[in-house]
## 1
Amino acid sequence: MRALTVEPLTSGSAEVRDVPDPEAGPGEMLVEGLALGICGTDREIVAGEYGWAPPGRDRLVLGHESLGRVRTAPPGSGFAAGDLVVGVVRRPDPVPCGACAHDEFDMCRNGRYTERGIKEIDGYGSELWAVETGYAVKLDPRLEHVGVLMEPTTVVAKAWEQVDRVGSRAWYEPSRVLVTGAGPIGLLAVLLGVQRGLEVHVLDLATEGPKPEAVEALGAQYHSAGMAEVVQRVAPDVIIEATGVSSLVFEAMAGTASYGIVCLTGVSPVGRKISVDVGAANREMVLENDVVVGSVNANLSHYAAAADALAKADLDWLSRLITRRVPLARFEEALRGRPDDIKVVLDLAG
Ligand code: BGC
């Protein structure tokens, strides 16, 4: 079978190669890959900036935003041939740490977790993949064309859960949220915000194209003015930061209403320095009981929440987020971002 492989930390090493078909071990099922979403992490791995090959090997099968159709599943597993499924990205560390022992592997404390397509386990960027039935989630068959959005939705479902948990430390009834960045994470955060009945605002640099249209179609408000002006106008109770742009991160921290929560989801590049008045930031956070919370990855409870959110969403709206579908053989095109891209997907079914 063909797989998209890469030698981590070696820029330009990505290649589609013929590799042996996977075999489903005990408790695993064999899945035909349908689609693979491409995100910033994949681009970082291909650029040689991130990623780990499986122990004893040089190359890793790339891909963590999966969608496939079950070919064979163990009897009594709850899965059957033909089911539409998504594989979970992270696996608990082998110790395991307390969080991993409590199925909260997204909160791993010792950093020894593994991740499919990212850290030490082959990913889902292949024509066939095997997955443990306990780390796969069945999707509504109606989601066949958009189910590849599941993994980024799990990241957003976790971010919202973190916001709720932080908020519930005292009386909490948020009404306005600002999402910074209208990429896939930002737009899915908007979807979940609207589903919660919040007044949702979005800030992004794009002034035309699919991003403002997707935001307005949900009844949310799109802004492309400066952050300072937007936060002043909106006074958000919650900011979900989905750009990772250093200056925006700090403006977000200063820009919430009192008892504000900033949830950071963007993985920023390191080494870009900005000058910040830490005293002012501290003063404001203390005097307003503000919280800044980082959020990464997702556990099985977030996969369940994401599956529900997608099942409730408008399918036409979801399909607008997939702005390009590229065959596996032309993966280089998919990895090269274009200004109008929201989510680019590799077609694995040939
Ligand atoms: C993935 C997460 C993963 C993180 C760090 C993100 O792109 O969506 O599942 O934990 O990268 O490796």
Note: The chain has two domains: 2-138+315-347, 154-294.
## 2
Amino acid sequence: MDWKEIYKQKLREPEEVVKLIKSGNRVVIGHAAAEPTALVDAMVKNCKQYENVEIVHMVALGKCEYAKPEMSKHFKHNALFVGGSTRESVKECISDYTPTFFYQVPKLFKKGYLPIDVALVEVSKPDEHGFCSFGVSCDYTKTGAECAKIVIAEVNDQMPRTFGDNFIHVSDIDYIVESSRSLIELQPPKITDVEKAIGENCASLIEDGSTLQLGIGAIPDAVLLFLKDKKNLGIHSEMFSDGLVDLYNSGAINNSKKSLHKGKMVVTFLMGTKKLYDFVNDNPAVELYPVSYVNDPMVIMQNNKMVSINSCIQVDMMGQVSSESIGLTQFSGVGGQVDYVRGTSMSEDGKSIIAMPSTASKGKISRIVPFLDNGSAVTTSRNDVEYIVTEYGIADLRGKTLKQRARELIKIAHPNFRDALVEEFENRFKEKF
Ligand code: COA
């Protein structure tokens, strides 16, 4: 049958299709800026018909009404990452968090650790062959749709069409709803002098011809500001945002020296503003693949001169990095941090960087500490860590003893906290700093 005919037959209204969700089902929602908001709104509106529907989601940029206390009888939110919209709910034990490396999320679906009943996804309009693109989120979204018993797709004519292994044919979708609305946007962060100093320190470690992974936020954006004079940079990253568009247009990124996917910027999702979404639309220079591929350390390592830059909350004097919790409070998630730290450390001439301001809470707290807060999760272990960067400098912990590491870290701590750290050093190591 002609795909256009199939498409017509599958077309429904959101209110109608969400009735297919049954109490006790596990529902996966398309990730980040690819959240199918018309479907999610209809599902929340229909909440009285459900009990105990588990919502699996990662970076949830939408309203997250299903995670509110008054919804707890109807929905249980299983967060694979915690953000502003879900933090309180996880803290209050209304929602729960599943620790897992990002690259392994598709495996949880495929191998039945988290079997999916219904996938709610958002896709682009079909092309002339009947293929819809998952647009700005391939990550776990594509695998979620492949593994779900029922796939409901919101076809949004404003979803960019992106390349890579990022398509679904209309014949593989069970039900379709149509929408036309701008994608969820994330505005660029404000970059302060502290972040600029961190960015400059990180950029000093990046050689021409490197392939980069940069997270989101002020620090990655600050790094980009100092890369304009570099040459032949490449991108293999979990995601990128608006800041990268300017650097690409400046000519510093051309992907010509990449040892894997030469000439292409490879990512698993994209999150930013319309500027970014317009840039990636129908752009063969950008390719999206499932996170099980992009973030697999064995894939990342195939990029020579790979440099990863991620951030954290605390580092102790041994080099244990906590990036996702403040004590027992789950603040964010591991995301792809360890995927990249490990893949990068296996890459020929790779460098993995953890970059952070030396203090938190408006300068009241040092992020370099003798001990992690009670209950904090170790995200990057002391065995995996390589470079730690603050606005005060660079500590390369590779091949360093516990004592040498402590010295290096104290040197890049904020001056206000160095005396206390030195005192701890002298007690711990029984020698003068
Ligand atoms: N003690 C107490 N509070 C702390 C703290 C500490 N040691 N460290 C940070 N905080 C507070 C900050 O003060 C800030 O609160 P405020 O906004 O009220 O001032 C808040 O926690 C957020 O800290 P900040 O460092 O500004 O957050 P960020 O938005 O730059 O994100 C991470 C930093 C580490 C949370 C984030 O990078 C992350 O989640 N990383 C893990 C996942 C990852 O690396 N993914 C990368 C692959 S793309």
Note: The longest strand covers residues 150-156.
